[in-house]
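Forwarding the complex inputs:
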Amino acid sequence: MAHHCCINQRVKKGLWSPEEDEKLIKYISANGYGSWNSVPRLAGLQRCGKSCRLRWVNYLRPDLKRGSFSPQEEALVIELHRNLGNKWSRIAKHLPGRTDNEVKNFWNTRIKKKLRSQDHAIPHALATFSVTEYLSGSEQGVSPHVLNRNFNLNRKSQQDQLHQPPPIRMLQSLDLSDHRILEQSSCSPSWVHFPPLIPPLPNSSSKTWSPGHDHQTHDQLGPNQQDQNFSMRASTPQSLVINPRISEPDSENAILAPEMPELYEIIIGGINVGSERN
DNA sequence: AAGCCTACCAACCGCAGCCTC
DNA sequence: AGAGGCTGCGGTTGGTAGGCT
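Prediction (whole assembly, three chains):
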């Protein structure tokens, strides 16, 4: 059955052309998105609204992080999946710049296989030292240096993988059930944080983003992605009204991490012990 | 060089849930 | 209360690139 938004429309399917992307970007840049169903008509696209939304959310959004998952993201995905199951959107909320689709693909293509190949599904690092454990340990004042000793970290190689700025905030959009789950696993959300991939919104009430902040690491982008990034910069105004329906992380409630100097090294070190990245 | 295999990922599909009337 | 519209989510598919034989 055709989706209701596609009924009575001659809609195109399949991959998006650069021209279509450009149209969608231009339209949303100028108007924001209120009703996805009206977007294709108003933007001059022969797509259904659902397809437009998906394209925007998964690919064209300016705050997306492209490129492969970092080891710390991988660790977080594994940990969150352990707690949340296949709740990709909820997992993705904890990974700024990543979409549910991206997380899902990442899980299905990489982690699942990796875990399967390593008896009992848990990478060495997480089997012996999970994010949760570290986090709860940190709260109890366990020195990262002690942990570093245990994992025999190679700081140089870790630094090479760290293309992230210092940690700032994470789990800022946790809902209550997420909090409960993390509490059950003795993990305090206030300690789970991650380098920001997009500039934090100025405040929670203004639903705007500024494409002027270009945080993408261009050398990680494929040619098509670079083109699209270029398009974004070329055509996007300084601010854009985002549909209020889309829930933004609540900056008011965002928990700023006080300091987490070596979390990355610890997680990365652990992961590198148990598995190699490709 | 050609064919096959595998990994990856963009996009689609169908359903559930929310909202409005 | 319930019907219809819409959005978001999770599962799945299909195309493509790269490696191997």
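Chain A is about 45% helix and 0% strand.
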